[in-house]
Amino acid sequence: VHGLFAYAIVALLVSSEGRMSLPWLDHAAARFMGRISYSFYLWNFPILYAITTVGFATIAADHWLSAPNSMALALFVVSSLVTIPIAWLSYRVVEQPLIRVGKLIRT
């Protein structure tokens, strides 16, 4: 679903030949998520896996099965709230210094 959504946005922007803009992508929150998106991508699955494993160990299976959509939404929210600060830290500590080194090497 994420891939299709991203494809639709890119397709709309490309096909409009500069006539279309998406102002919601210019907000600080969207730019922040864009900056940390690679770190978010790298950390999201391991964190989601850990949270799900703990969740299955601590919450009875009948609760998971009685409201699967609610549980999936809760997993999404909790894993996102945990992943965002870790991705930001990874971006600051790993990505930014390596980007600076890459720019120094290039020049």
Overview features:
107 residues, mainly alpha, 5 helices, 83% helix, flat
Mean of the pLDDT scores? 89
Oligomer: single chain
Shape: flat
Specify the biggest β-sheet: none
Quick structural summary:
With 107 residues, this protein is an all-alpha fold. The chain has 5 helices and no strands.
Polypeptide structure, described:
The protein has five helices and no strands. By secondary structure, the chain is an all-alpha fold. α3 (37-58) packs antiparallel against α5 (68-106). The termini are far apart. The model has no long low-confidence stretch (mean pLDDT 89).
Q: How is the topology of this model organized?
A:
Elements: H1 2-15, H2 28-35, H3 37-58, H4 61-66, H5 68-106
